[in-house]
Amino acid sequence: MVIPMTGRIYDGERGRLMIIRAAKLRDMPACAEIVNAWIDATSWMPRVHSPEEVAEFYRDTVFERFEVFVAEREEQIAGMIALAPDNTVSALYVHDAYRGQGVGKALLDHARNEATGPVQLWTFAANRGAQAFYEREGFKEVRRTDGDNEEHLPDILYSCQRDSAGMTP
To answer: I need a labelling partner for 6 at 20 to 30 A (CA). Which of 20, 43, 111, 163 fits?
Structure first.
């Protein structure tokens, strides 16, 4: 997979520049902080791993096994996405201060452009906001589970196919 190092996106409405780039190892603590903050702020999400274990997982596993991209705004990590070699998005998280500002869409678009085929991802059935977001972005539900994950929470597999003009459900 060929990965461009940087993509610049200018948000004229807000007058801000967002940079999408390949993550560096030094970015993993900030990525883990975003994930940990989301877990702590989400009432239905059980904490299965300590914050330290999450940080270690992002540093030692996610960074090593996946193509990880970060969005930077105002010199801060605003969000991150991890794309597996099989085109599965294994993580997409946006810092709470940057939600609703196009960061998640920019990261998802970047990953879809980098993917070599259909993109798949899982989201929890309780995460209605994520479901609405993915469906707006052209993803279609493929199947559901009753909690075949370490959190033991029902989840949904989504997929988006690539056609000659781009990505389609």
So the answer is: 163
- How far, in Å, are 19, 101, 103, 155 from residue 14 at the CA level? 14, 9, 13, 34
Q: What ranges do the domains of the chain cover?
A: 6-168
CA 44, 48, 50: angle at the middle one, nearest 5?
115
The answer to whether 31 and 38 have CB atoms below 8 angstroms apart is no
DSSP codes of every residue in 62-109: IHHHSEEEEEEETTEEEEEEEE-TTSEEEEEEE-GGGTTTTHHHHHHH
**What amino acid occupies position 124?**
F
Asked whether 87 and 139 are in contact (CB, 8 A), the reply is: no
What CATH number does the domain located at 6-168 have? Answer: 3.40.630.30
Could you write out the DSSP letters of every residue in 3-40?
Answer: --SEEEEEETTTTEEEEEEE--GGGHHHHHHHHHHHHH
pTM for this entry: 0.88
Closest by Cα among 36, 94, 86 to 66: 86
In the chain, how many H helices and how many E strands?
5, 9
pLDDT tens track for 113-160: 999 999 999 999 999 999 999 999 999 999 999 999 999 999 999 999
**Can you tell me the distance from the alpha carbon of 27 to that of 108, in angstroms, rounded to the nearest whole number?**
18
